[in-house]
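Researcher: I'd like a structural prediction for the single chain below. Treat it as a standalone chain; there are no partners to consider.
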Amino acid sequence: MPTDRPVTLAAVIGAHGVTGEVRLKLFGDGPESLKRYKSFDAGSRTLTLKTVRNGPNGAVARFAEITDRNAAEALRGVALTVPRSALPALQPGEYYHTDLIGLPCLNSEGVAIGRVVTVENFGAGDILEIEKPDGKRFMVPIHAAAIDEDRAVIESAFIE
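Model: Treating it as a single chain, here is the predicted structure.
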């Protein structure tokens, strides 16, 4: 099921200090999880991670290519991504959100209803947002869906 599309692990939310450090909003398991990657795709460039630590609202990182506050401020809003293939392997029954996006969704009778367009989590668990062919969208709790890895589809009695 995995493809090698880019996966966003963090986004730059601003500069930290005057020496080129940046503040990061994290989308993973904390600053330590970023250390397993030597570099990140950042738009049209590659950034080499030197250090990362806990910081206000996320993490503070230093990249080899960013040496002053102006360069750090210029990164505000930039997503830091890695290829899907660089992510750690998962246990059976575990999924990265990126693996679910784009999967076709079937109702309990096997009829195609739409495709997953995003996976949200508002605090009570993951929710699949599904778009029908007419463009209308609806949400289904992931625990109410069955992910068939062999057929690369999602099935649910709640999908109508």
